Amino acid sequence: MLQVYLVRHGETQWNAERRIQGQSDSPLTDKGEKQAWQVAERAKALGITHIISSDLGRTRRTAEIIADVCGCDIVFEPRLRELDMGVLERRHIDSLTEEEEGWRRQLVNGTDDGRIPDGESMQELSDRMHAALAACLQLPEGSRPLLVSHGMALGCLVSTILGLPAYAERRLRLRNCSISRIDYQHSPWLASGWVVETAGDVSHLDAPALDELQR
Ligand SMILES: O=C(O)[C@H](O)COP(=O)(O)O
To answer: One MF term in GO for this entry (predicted)?
Structure first.
């Protein structure tokens, strides 16, 4: 059975400032760097064989640290990027106008084709995340891949595997450098296909980690 591990990148400057990132970027904080080294040690103990990462800076840095500890190469995969948050990227979450809040609400309340202007819909995010995940099925027998991605992107992937809508990702806290595991199984009796083994495990971190809204 194929086990795939999902890691959200380490804390960034804009995570800490509650600033919307999307496909814009900010560097890891010192805490984020430390988180990355801690999740890297966990990955090594799990026997990770492949690292596939969003190509944004925050995930790239997190993947480089994990690769250093695990002795793996990295494949950069743009389909693992965070949701494109359009015109609201770089904005502080508390600075949004009522109209702008309305755009963000559309993303998470199931509005058909809800999106922030110039941004992506949750369905578009779900489609590309599942396409990136499906590529893991082509890896050699016995592979144990680890994907480095983002809060909304991974939340959307896990939610849809559970049969929930893409926008349900708000109900799942995937904190910085949390690790989740999904398995691909063939079982006529149980659900065949992807199943969620664990989600949002932070037991390898020695301090509380933020989720994307610093809850
Ligand atoms: O700020 C954002 O765009 C997301 O809510 C969190 O993104 P991240 O997981 O890439 O920090």
So the answer is: phosphoglycerate mutase activity
Domain segments of the chain: what residues?
Answer: 2-201
CA distances (Å), 163 to each of 84, 158, 167, in order? 23, 9, 11
Cα-to-centroid distance, 165 and ligand 1 (Å): 19
Confidence of residue 167 (pLDDT cuts 50, 70, 90): confident
Q: ipTM, 2 decimals?
A: 0.95
Which helix or strand (DSSP H or E) is residue 181 part of? strand 179-185
Q: How many angstroms separate the most distant Cα atoms in the chain?
A: 51
pLDDT tens-digit profile of 71-124? 999 999 999 999 999 999 999 999 999 999 999 989 888 888 899 999 999 999
Q: Is the CB–ligand 1 distance for residue 119 below 6 Å?
A: no
Q: What is the pLDDT of residues 193-202, one digit of tens each?
A: 999 999 999 9
Q: Is 82 in the pocket of ligand 1 (CB under 6 A)?
A: yes
Pick the CATH number of 2-201 from 3.40.50.2300, 3.40.50.1240, 1.10.10.10, 2.130.10.10: 3.40.50.1240
Is residue 157 a contact partner of residue 129, using CB atoms and an 8 Å limit? Answer: yes
The response to whether 60 counts as a known ligand-binding position is: yes
